[in-house]
Structure formats: C-alpha cells, structure tokens
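Example for tutorial group B:
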C-alpha cells in the first residue's frame, strides 16, 4: 500500500462518517466526532478491504476496483460503519 491510498482512505472515511451522521442524526457524534470516527474507520476499513480482495498493498487496491475507487469505497464505508457503531455505544451508555 502506498501513502496516496492511505490518504484517500482517511479522507473518504471522514466524508463517510459525516454522511452517516447527517443521515442518522440519532447516532451522530457531531461534526468533529463524526470526522474522527470516520478517519479511524476509513483507515481500518480500507485496509480490511485491501487485505480481503488481494492480500494488501497495491495488488489489493487494484483488486478492489482500481486503486482510487477501492480506497474510496473501503474508506467511506469503513468510516460510516465505525461512526454508527460508536453512535450506538454512546446511545446505550447515555441511557444508563
């Protein structure tokens, strides 16, 4: 994996986290929280997608739909998923 793929995954994660927060307001962590959760989820999600589809690195990114598209998809989806998971946990803890 190269640094450009990682940067794309992190940015896509932030966008994915904020998009999920805008759509699912009851799970939203605020703009900063959505961005932070999205960035972390984007990095993790992009790495998982690359590893599952090609063993990581450039081969994984190429198998995931051509480098940039694979990084965008993995990062955006990973960011949205992690933001939702954290939002659910936050909601459960707030009820106690």
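The residue assignment follows.
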């Amino acid at each position: 994996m190269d640094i450009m793929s990682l940067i794309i995954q992190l940015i896509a994660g932030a966008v994915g986290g904020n998009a999920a927060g805008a759509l699912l307001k009851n799970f939203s962590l605020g703009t900063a929280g959505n961005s932070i959760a999205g960035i972390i989820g984007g990095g993790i999600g992009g790495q998982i997608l690359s590893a599952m589809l090609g063993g990581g690195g450039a081969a994984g990114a190429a198998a995931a739909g051509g480098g940039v598209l694979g990084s965008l998809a993995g990062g955006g989806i990973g960011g949205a998923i992690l933001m939702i998971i954290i939002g659910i946990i936050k909601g459960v803890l707030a009820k106690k």
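The two ends are 42 Å apart (CA to CA). Compare this with the pattern of hydrophobic and polar residues in the output above.
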